[in-house]
Amino acid sequence: MQIIKNESINQIKARIRQQTLKTVDPQVENRVADIIATVREKGDVALKSYAKAFDDVSLDVLKVSSSQINQAMKSVDPEVIAALEKAAANIRSFHQLELQTSFEDSPRPGVLRGTKVTALSAVGIYVPGGTAAYPSSVLMNALPAKIAGVKNIIMVTPPQKDGTNPVVLAAAKIAGIDSIYQVGGAQAIAALAYGTESIPKVDKITGPGNAYVATAKRAVYGQVAIDMIAGPSEIGILADDSARPQDVAADLLSQAEHDVNARAILITNSEKLAQAVSDEVDKQLLTLPRVDIARAAVDSNGFIYLVDTVDDMIDLMNVVAPEHLEIQLENAYDYLAKIQNAGSVFLGKYASEPLGDYLAGPNHILPTGGTARFSSALGVWDFQKRIQYLDYSQAALSDDASDVAALAREEGLEAHARAIEVRQS
C-alpha cells in the first residue's frame, strides 16, 4: 500500500477530498435513461428481453414461486441456515430499538398538536447478484422494513442461469419478504419505480448495486424515495502501535476484495505500524481467492496516511467520512465522541468489520464516498413517515389570529390572512 508521509494535514485533506470527488458517466446515464423509458413503455416484455441480453437467461415468468423458495430452504446447509437465523435475531433486536412512535401535546387549552408515525405501504429492495451472492443484504434491507410495519416488501435480484441463489432465497424466507422477482440492473429499479404487469410500484427503493443501479436510483428519485446512492465499499482504520499489523491488514483487505474500486485507508501516527501493515497486506493478498480484485483496489485506492498525533488522525478520518470506521487504539471507546462522520464504527481490536457485515445487528447498508457527512445507516426510520396534525378551538384561534394575519401580509399572501380572519366574524 502507498504510504503518504511528510505532508501537512491540509495537503492530506485536499488529497482525500480529491479522491472522493464523484463523477457521473454520461454514457451510463444515457443508457439508463433508455432502459427506464423502455421498461415504462413495454413492462414485463422489456424485463424479459433485458434478462436475455444482459444475463443470458430466458425467463417465462419473473416471479420466484413459493415452491422454489421452500426447496431452497431445504437445499441450504443447515449450518448456514442457523447462521442466517442468528443474524436475523440480532438484526431484529438491534433495529427494534429504532422504532419511532407517534406523539401529541397540548401547549395550552384549545390547541392540540401531534405527529402520526406510519409505515410506508410498499418497499422494493435490490439485492445484487453477479460475482457473489449476498444473503446478508437481504436481511439488512428487509428486517428494518418489517419492524417498521411495511405490508408489502418486494425483492428484486438479477436472474441466474441456474436459478436464483438458494441462500439468497433462504434469507428472503427468513426475513419474511412477500415476493421475489428475477430482474436486476437499471431495469429492476425502473420496474419498482413505475410498475409493470408483474411487479407492483413501490414507495421506496433500498439496497446497493452497480453503477447502473445507482444511476437508475438517482434518475427515479422523486417518483419514489430511495435510501442512498451507494458507491464502492470502503473502510477507514485509526490505529497506533497497540494494533497488530496482521489484524489491520486483514480488515483492510476485507473491503478491498469487494470491488476493484473499493477504498481501504489506514491513518496512523506510527511509522513502524504503517510499514508493517503495508508488508502484511502484500503477504495476505497472495492467499486470497479474489486476489485480482483486492490487489486492484489496494493499488488504486489503498492509502496509509502517517501523521503526528491521534487528534490529527481523527481530524483526517472525519474528512474521509468512511462507510466503515475501525478504531484500533487503546481505550477505543474514549474516542467515539470525537467521531463526527462515519457510517458505522467498530471499537477495539476484536470488533472486526465483518461482524457488522453479517451478524452483530447494526445495519451494513451504509453511506459511502464521504456521504456519511450528511447521511446515516439504513434503519427502521427509513421505512416510516410522519404525518403532522393540528386542532384549534375558536378561542385559541382568536388568540393567534392577528399574529398569523400579520405574518401572512408581511409575505404578501392576503388570502392566507383572510382565511384566518373570516373565522373571526
From TrEMBL:
The active site is at residues 323-324. It catalyses: L-histidinol + 2 NAD(+) + H2O = L-histidine + 2 NADH + 3 H(+). Belongs to the histidinol dehydrogenase family. NAD(+) binds at residues 126, 187, 210. GO terms for biological process: L-histidine biosynthetic process. GO terms for molecular function: histidinol dehydrogenase activity; NAD binding; zinc ion binding. Keywords: Amino-acid biosynthesis, Histidine biosynthesis, Metal-binding, NAD, Oxidoreductase, Zinc. This is Histidinol dehydrogenase. Pathway: Amino-acid biosynthesis; L-histidine biosynthesis; L-histidine from 5-phospho-alpha-D-ribose 1-diphosphate: step 9/9. Catalyzes the sequential NAD-dependent oxidations of L-histidinol to L-histidinaldehyde and then to L-histidine. Its cofactor is Zn(2+). GO terms for cellular component: cytosol. It comes from the Bacteria. PROSITE patterns: HISOL_DEHYDROGENASE. CDD domains: Histidinol_dh. Pfam families: Histidinol_dh. Substrate binds at residues 233, 255, 258, 324, 357, 411, 416. InterPro entries: Ald_DH/histidinol_DH (IPR016161), Histidinol_DH_CS (IPR001692), Histidinol_DH_monofunct (IPR022695), Hstdl_DH (IPR012131). Zn(2+) binds at residues 255, 258, 357, 416. Binds 1 zinc ion per subunit.
